[in-house]
Structures are given as C-alpha cells and as structure tokens.
Amino acid sequence: MGDDKKTAKLTIDGNEYELPIHTPTLGPNVVDIRKLYGQANVFTYDPGFTSTASCDSTITFIDGEKGELLHRGYPIDQLAEKSHYLEVCYLLLYGELPSAAQLEDFEERVTKHTMLHEQMQFLFRGFRRDAPPMAIMVGVVGALSAFYHDSTDINDPWQREVASVRMIAKMPTIAAMAYKYTIGQPFVYPRNDIDYASNFMRMCFAVPSEDYEVNPILSRAMDRIFTLHADHEQNASTSTVRLASSSGANPFACIAAGIACLWGPAHGGANQAALEMLREIGTVDRIPEFIARAKDKNDPFRLMGFGHRVYKNFDPRAKVMKQSADEVLDLMGIEDNPTLQVAKELEKQALADPYFAEKKLFPNVDFYSGIILEAMGFPTSMFTAIFAVSRTVGWISQWKEMIADPQLKIGRPRQLYVGAEFRDYVDIEKR
Ligand code: CMC
Asked: Are 204 and 179 in contact (CB under 8 A)?
C-alpha cells in the first residue's frame, strides 16, 4: 500500500481528526478510516460499498471511466486475443505470466485433478432432475469439503495450493455433471488429452453412443468466455468469498458462498436474464416498448446486460464478446439470427437514448455472452453455471491473497441502527 504522507481532515463537533491517505498504483486515493471509530466514536455509512475499498489487492484493476480492465497489469483485450484461460489462471494466481515450463507444469496439475471422487455422483442423484444447475453447484461445491479434508487447513500453504488447483480443475466437471443430470444423460468423465475448454464442452455434449469432436473455433470461443469472466476485482461474489473466508472457513465452503451470490440476476444471473429478455422482445419492432419500460420509474423492468457499477463508459469485455458472437454465429452458419438482430438494434437504440447516455448505461459482458452460449448448444440455465466455472480462479486468487495477508481480520461491518430504542419485554396477556 503506497503512503505519501497525505492526510484528510475531518471535523466533528468542533474536534478535528486527521486521516491518512493511501496512494494506490492506479485509481483514486483512499482515505484510511480504520481508527476513526476508536478516535471519534462515529461510523462511516456506505451501503452497497459505492465509495469503500474493502481491502488492498494486487490482482485486478478496473478504470470504469476509461473502460479498462487489467489483470496483474495486463489489459483484458490483449489477454483475450493472445493468451488463453489456463495461462490467465496462472497469471491471476501467481502474479506473473508463466514460462513455457511453468505453464506446462500448471496445466498438468490442473488436468490431473479434473476427476471427482466417485462417491460424489450419488450427491448429484439426490437432486430433482429439474433442479437448476446453479442449485446443484452450490450444493456440490460446498460438499467438496466433505470429500477433500486433506486440503481444508487454510493455515497450511501447501493445502491452500492443492485446494486451489482442485477447484479450478473440478469446477468444469461439476458444472457439466449438473447439466447432464438435468437432461437425464450419463455423466461424461474428463479427458486428460484435450484442453480445458474442449474438455468442458465434451463433458457437456458427448454421449457414450457416438464419438464427439470439439470444433476448435467453438472451443476457442468457450475459452474466451472463461478468460473474459476470470476475475473482476471486488465484485459482489468475490467480496462474499472474502467475507466468508475471513472467519477461517474452508475454501470449498467459501467458493460455494461465492456461487450463491453470483446466481442473482443483478450479477452473474444477468447472462441468462439478458438472453431471456432478448427472446421476449423477439422482434426489432418491439424494442421501443421495452426501452420505454426500462425508463419507467414505476416499472421494475431493467434492460438486462446493461449498466455496471464500475464501468461508466464501456465494458471492455463486452466488445470482445460482441466480436466473438459474430464469429460463432458465422461458423455455425446461423445467419440472420433474430436474437442477435434484436441485441444489436437494442444496443443501438438504447445508446442513442438520452436516458441511457445520462446514466452512463452501456452493454456489459452479459449482453452478448448468452447469444454465443445458446449457439453452442447450452440451455439458458447453464449460463450462470459457466460464469461460475470461469470466475472460480478469480475467487481463489483473491482468497489466497487475503489468507496470506498477516493483517487478516474477520470482516465485520457495523450499521446505522434505526430500529426501536430500549424497551422492556411485555407479557403476552398485556399486548
Ligand atoms: N436498465 C434501466 N435502468 C438502469 C439499468 C438498466 N439495466 N441499470 C441501471 N439503471 C438506472 C437505475 O434505475 C438508476 O436510475 P436512477 O438513478 O434514476 O434511480 C441508475 O441507472 C443507477 O442504477 P443503480 O442500480 O443505482 O446502479 P448500480 O451501480 O447499483 O447497479 C447494476 C449496477 C449492474 C446492478 C445495474 O446496472 C443493473 O441492474 N443492470 C442489469 C443487470 C445486469 O446486467 N447485471 C450484470 C452486471 S455485469 C456482470 C457482473 O458483474 O456480474
């Protein structure tokens, strides 16, 4: 944490308090209020954390005004174009791009951990066949702690490393099994001789009765979806993982908490909601009706896949995703896809509308990802599960960073209490 001896002065009831200001590598300065309660007996108030840095971190940086996303300093568009998911995983976890030997070793470690304990399939069989894959994932990922006790001691760096690799490796297997279970097909075991993205697609789409070859262009698009979602600074699910982990809970349970948070439509659930919305709009002529609804204060409807807490200009991931959508639909020979047409026209009309311009609302990563995933053959219920697979490395990198910090404290926010004042209990017959 940079510290250039700048301070901020705060006056409360005539008393002046001097608060240190920390200078980051990039981004706005941060006023350190950690001692404020002790000195001045006041809390600060920031529901939704719109102005609060909850930790210091060296992993990911976002400049919302410039539309910039950097992992360990490297911009996401360069990573999406030149790198691939497992290399980005290495970068996020260990801080630097790997050498060829380091990458080979990492890929081998991940590959060797892709299988699940055989007993775990009985857990899947306990769910209803129509369970949403995300519901299964929350349960099964939490249950990893019951199967892999030998990597739950967070104070042991070796166990932390094993747990990390296990989760990155097993998450595609779990998501694919959740999918297979809900469509009544046999589980497909992972293969060690194909890459991470192809392996995931094969586990989702192969059946025992025939050979399955993954199209390299689709596998590259899948890998790009994983890469674009790999980490995103202190978003809601990452903060959930950090908060859950701050109590010392085991990593599998904490990642399950992150998956639960990601599920919501304001976060990872937006990719499913966005495609469902585009389908509901159906034809270009209905767009003005939906734009009017999104602007109507009395209507809870929002344009899903639009807007972001941090990006106020454009989402750099959305640009790559839009290009990928064109490539995939082209490859699949899906010309004049009505959903893509609605998406492009909706984007055009919304961006030309002063409401969206004034509020700085732009398509986010989820606006186009659903179109690609649908073209690949995934049902909407799998979209958020795929996001969870991708984001696992981000959650784990942030978790590892936090646990290794000697200043780690349990996360414990305070509140602005506006409830009843002290009152005596009233016996039931007197109420
Ligand atoms: N459609 C219509 N109006 C919107 C939208 C939208 N998608 N998003 C924000 N607004 C309006 C909102 O009504 C508010 O208006 P006013 O100031 O008049 O009350 C203003 O813009 C600010 O909205 P907010 O909810 O205070 O902003 P936020 O930073 O708390 O929320 C958001 C960010 C992403 C939750 C929100 O933009 C949203 O709900 N978008 C749709 C869901 C979505 O696409 N989520 C995926 C985010 S990217 C992937 C991820 O990180 O998981």
From this structure: yes
